[in-house]
Fold this sequence. Notes:
The chain is mostly helical and about 400 residues long. Helices cover about 75% and strands about 0% of the residues. The protein is built from twelve helices and no strands. The chain has helices at about 15-40, 55-85, 90-110, 120-140, 150-170, 180-210, 220-240, 245-265, 275-295, 305-330, 340-355, 365-395. The two termini are about 15 Å apart.
Amino acid sequence: MPTATQAYDGPAILSGGYRVFFFSAAVWAVFSLLIWVLFLAGVAEPVFGPLDIDMVQWHGHTLIYGYGGAVVAGFSLAAIPNWTGRPPVCGAALLTLFIPWLIARGAEVGLLLGGSLEAVRAGAELLFFALFIGIALREIIAGKNWRNLKIIVVFSLFFFGALVTNLERLDVIALSFSGWGFGLGVLLVLITLIGGRIIPAFTANWMRQQGLKSVPTMFNRFDAVVVLVTVLTMGVMVARIYDGILGSLALVGAGLHVVRLWRWRGWHTVTSPIVAILHISYLWVPVGFLLVGLSALGVGDIDMVSALHAWTVGGVGSTTLAVMTRATLGHSGLPLKDSGLLTTLYVAINLAGVARVFGVLVAGHSSLLMTLAGLLWCAAFVVFLVRFGPLHWRR
């Protein structure tokens, strides 16, 4: 991995994109959930005027485009030097990218306080995504890493989702599809694409170190079919076609993702949480497909919101923490060793997913389970900040 940051002598937090964006994403994951819960409970109230926003939309947007956008940026800026052989983006260039993200998050807090900051939030957020795509494209072209140009397409879709969502919230357009659902779809496609590369690769490396002969199946035509079905399913869901078409596609997707997960031989990794968490996190993808399919088909009492939380809290939350912990250790030059804190973090985020999904399915215990889910979510990210925050701030 290129480490050509010797010439950079500024704050350590700006010496690599993974540092500032992973740290900020974790802080935002805790803060945004806590402030949202306080407003829902009526403990906090707007101070600048009446609250004129959809709280559920606000919550979804902060997770998908706020938290998700920061993690995608952090992971990509850490990976691109490996793809291109170029030095990592750092210093003033990185700060220029980070400031719009920070302004957008501050504007989101202002919206809850009753401020008229939709335009500020929209402008800053779109500037962040545009700058991020520009930087990624520049690095890939400069490094002549043509095969990874396709990832720019996915990043551009993320920008498009943020664009139309913000335009709707500014009453410029009226959407016929779910804006935050579009962003969730992009995150799931990224998990499907990138997970399909790194999970079998990291598992194979660990198995070789353990002297195991079993080898995960690497990305092939079957995986391409899985990605295609995932894209089709998310497209139907974003179009709000909650009927037999979505149900059938989602159930097929669930089965394909289970087979894919089985091909990666994850059961061999149970003795190493830092490897096993990659498989456990990916398990939330087929679980989400299964629940979405059953909900769309009207099977049982599964509501679509709880089904989607299997993907957001479980899939996105657990997968991003798995990647953030591993990437921070690796890029900090530390061994990928398991520890009690790591295990605690992984257990907390996955129990948060379980509690949130079943929060409305267990009669009489909905409030308790949903509160527990929120506490476990915050606990997982607090542990991350305690363990990895200092690594982001020092060389």
